[in-house]
Amino acid sequence: MDIASGPRRHSFTGPLLIEVLQAAEPLFDPAERKDRLRCLIAVPGRDGHRTVLSWGELDPEFGNTPALPAVSMDCRPLDDDGPHLVMPGDRCGARHISQVTDLRVCADDRLWG
Q1: CA 95, CA 88: separation in Å to the nearest integer?
Q2: Is there a contact between 11 and 78 (Cβ–Cβ < 8 Å)?
Q3: Model confidence over 33-78: pLDDT tens digits?
Q4: Which CATH superfamily groups domain 12-108?
Q5: Alpha-carbon dihedral of residues 80, 46, 41, 107, nearest 10 degrees?
Q6: Distance of CA 61 to CAs 15, 28, 54, 71, 78, Å?
Q7: Using CB atoms within 10 A of its CB, is residue 53 exposed (0-12), middle (13-18) or buried (19+)?
Q8: Which residue(s) pair with 97 in the sheet?
Q9: Contact status, residue 92 vs residue 39, Cβ threshold 8 Å
């Protein structure tokens, strides 16, 4: 039996991911809705696990998902581990990324080239 599977309950704290991304001043006009909807966010973890999010699912004018790069879990700082990507509302933990190494924002131009 794999004890790592099944539902878990934790308490996380950290800033909203959309606020972190906005503070980084991405290279597009944030007032342009269509520009925002063209952006993808890659989130890799130190262990090789990664996921891709869309700006639209995080943006308050669209999906408004309160994703966060958690800096503490269950009142324990994650300073030594690095932040964890937490996706509230997901029914499984596949998009929970431990030890996030960086965030990469890119436009979808390469997809439609």
Answers
A1: 10
A2: no
A3: 888 898 999 999 999 999 999 999 999 999 999 999 999 999 999 9
A4: Oxidoreductase, molybdopterin-binding domain (3.90.420.10)
A5: 130
A6: 18, 17, 13, 25, 30
A7: buried
A8: 85
A9: no
